């Protein structure tokens, strides 16, 4: 874990909420959707199959944990999960709460329009709710 | 598994290549990208967190297996993995081989343009190569 650093673009476009076992949990600076990103704290990994089998299982476990918390907090119609990495090659998993009628519904969020940042207060309030739902 | 049936739209838009432990492995009828779909053979599941923990791990294992085979066969720049389900609610995981300059690169494939079907021969040839790469 010592050589891990979040990709510069990921770090610029999102706020660190917490660290779970394997991953950094980050919130995208875009209020159009509740949009989280898990970043495994491993250097030089860009595909899920680059992770060890144990880390793959950890990533699945953390993805499920965060998806359920996000569903609870937002009441979303559908959780979208994606690992694309065509632009930022460092492995990261998007977890997005989608609801009917949201921007670009039922299409994907990636590459759509322009981010609309939250205020510091909105970010804080959302983070508090989510971390509360994640707590055991 | 007895109550499982692939969603009608998934069945119409893709060809069944094989069944792995948990999932049907299907090939989208769209030659613009090498585009596979894993469908867990479980009824009434739409989110990954609806699966049992064992099935979640199986799905991860099969996703990794298929991703590696697809990378081997295509030499793609990046494998894109996604579970969206905004249109088809039955849980399914997309595994897509992306290369620089392909249609909509570096954007996502979902919702982009119109599918361009393969010929039966092309489908057969691709399936044979992929199944060969999947074989132990």
UniProtKB/TrEMBL annotation, chains A, B:
- Enumerate the transmembrane spans: none
- Gene3D superfamilies registered for this protein in UniProt: HIT-like
Q: Which SUPFAM superfamilies match?
A: HIT-like
PROSITE patterns (UniProt xref): HIT_2 (PS51084)
Pfam families reported in the protein's UniProt record: HIT
Which residues does the UniProt record annotate as the domain HIT? 36-105
Q: Name one GO molecular function term.
A: catalytic activity
Q: What is this protein called?
A: HIT domain-containing protein
- Origin organism is Shinella kummerowiae
Upper classification of the organism: Bacteria, Pseudomonadati, Pseudomonadota, Alphaproteobacteria, Hyphomicrobiales
């Amino acid at each position: 874990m010592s050589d891990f650093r979040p990709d510069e673009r990921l770090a610029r476009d999102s706020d660190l909420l917490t660290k779970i076992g394997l991953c950094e949990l980050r919130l995208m600076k875009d209020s159009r959707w509740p949009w989280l990103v898990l970043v495994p704290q491993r250097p030089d990994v860009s595909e899920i199959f680059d992770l060890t089998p144990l880390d793959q299982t950890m990533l699945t476990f953390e993805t499920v944990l965060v998806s359920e918390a996000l569903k609870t907090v937002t009441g979303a119609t559908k959780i979208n999960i994606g690992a694309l990495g065509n632009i930022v090659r460092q492995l990261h998993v998007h977890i997005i709460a989608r609801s009917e009628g949201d921007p670009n519904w039922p299409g994907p969020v990636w590459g759509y329009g322009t981010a609309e940042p939250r205020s510091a207060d909105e970010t804080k309030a959302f983070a508090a709710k989510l971390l509360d739902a994640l707590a055991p």
